[in-house]
Amino acid sequence: MEVPYWMSRTNLLLGEEKIEKLVNAHVLVVGLGGVGGICAEMIARAGVGTMTIVDADTVDPSNRNRQIPATKSSEGKLKAEVLAERIRDINPEIKLNVMCEYLRDERTFEVLDQGSFDYAVDCIDTLSPKLFFIKGCKDRGIPIVSSMGAGGKVDPTRVRVVDLFETYNCTLSRHVRKRLRQMGVKENLTVVWSPEDIETDRVYTVEGMNNKKSVIGTISYMPAVFGCTVASVVIRDLYSN
């Protein structure tokens, strides 16, 4: 294949054979917040040829401290559409499917069955949809990497790529582990996670806020570190297999 000039530095690092694997891949990213937004952009910048991005949320002013789609001018706009514009500006040749919806229950399975995905990325921050998505991918043999909680954490050196069932000291990981075991998933789920302690006074409960029950303090770089690490798992696996 002829590698486009904008990918020349990636080509210098990886070579044409690995580039071709990325160009021919289709990656699904669900959740485009602090972790998912930067993750999707890094996957696109690596040259992945087809992407499906999913999120129904709109940009809120409070997103600007950490989320790639969030600027003053993008407030109130759909995150998926804002990010899609960025991705197409990075790679005008990309085949990009944009879904401005929340994936829940059977709809999750419909999307997984309709697409031919080489990799799936879980950046969902609501427990039940997260579990359905993970279980759906596992049942269909779709390679998946899942992000655990980046909120409340400040030390990027503690971020790790591990199996979910090796995690500890993370509330989201604990809930996901417990529920997935009940659903029959007991091993082999790659996650990005940090064992760093969270100060409990940095978390407060909110009802009726886009299905979220809690809000956790965040800093600009930590979701990005998680997102870049998740993207690295996808990219490295795609060009290595």
From TrEMBL:
This is tRNA A37 threonylcarbamoyladenosine dehydratase. GO terms for biological process: cyclic threonylcarbamoyladenosine biosynthetic process. It comes from Solitalea koreensis. Pfam families: ThiF (PF00899). One of its GO terms (molecular function) is tRNA threonylcarbamoyladenosine dehydratase. Residues 13-236 form the THIF-type NAD/FAD binding fold domain. It comes from the Bacteria.
